[in-house]
Write a structure and sequence with these properties.
By secondary structure, the chain is mainly α. 72% of the residues lie in helices and 0% in strands. It has helices at residues 3-22, 26-47, 55-68, 79-103, 123-135, 139-150, 155-162, 166-186. The radius of gyration is 22 Å and the shape is elongated. It starts with a helix and ends with a helix.
Length: 188
């Protein structure tokens, strides 16, 4: 089956679902988002083969944008074209963010041995302070922060290790970081 035929089949099956979803049919909306999510995973996986951990986050960001902007959909346009335009913008945003972040960091493995930064003399007290702050958090928030921010796991990996959904893990990280910020601000 050619790509054009697959695209037409996808769009012809998606359009009636999307139109019913736009009219308030929740089951049609769930089914449409499920089909779109599968298509987005394929789209982003092909483009982010070097960044596989970002695929699911980008799928979720795009689905959220589709939800937020569903009122802007023009029925004269194929649903897949509208979805693709939003997905492309999300992909460009991710690549810009990554490019800026990575441009600021010089990889340590490319530095000569004498150029590596020395450990700060007060590093151990900082670790102890962090451990004390983390100990004040509920276990789920503490685990989410340790896995994502300290161990550096992707959200999907941390969710799997923690035995929770990706969205639940994101909520725990957000709430935990918010609580830590409050604790740090309140200290004299």
């Amino acid at each position: 089956m050619t790509d054009a035929v697959q695209h037409d089949d996808f769009d012809s099956g998606l359009k009636p679902l999307w139109m019913r979803a736009q009219a308030g049919d929740e089951a049609a909306y769930r089914e449409a988002l499920s089909r779109i999510a599968a298509r987005l995973r394929s789209y982003f996986s092909r483009r982010l083969f070097a960044l596989p951990d970002d695929v699911e986050d980008l799928v979720q960001e795009t689905l959220l944008a589709l939800h937020q902007y569903r009122g802007t959909y023009d029925p004269a346009v194929p649903v897949s074209a509208w979805v693709h335009a939003i997905a492309r913008h999300k992909l460009v945003d991710l690549l810009r963010r990554r490019g800026r972040r990575e441009a600021l960091n010089e990889p340590l493995d490319e530095l000569a041995e004498d150029q590596h930064p020395a450990a700060a003399p007060d590093e151990q007290p900082a670790r102890r302070d962090l451990a004390l702050l983390l100990a004040t958090l509920p276990a789920a928030q503490r685990l989410a922060i340790v896995l994502t921010r300290i161990e550096g796991l992707s959200v999907a990996e941390a969710a799997q290790r923690g035995g929770v959904s990706v969205s639940a893990l994101k909520v725990q990280v957000h709430r935990g970081l918010k609580r830590l910020a409050e604790l740090v601000r309140s200290e004299p």
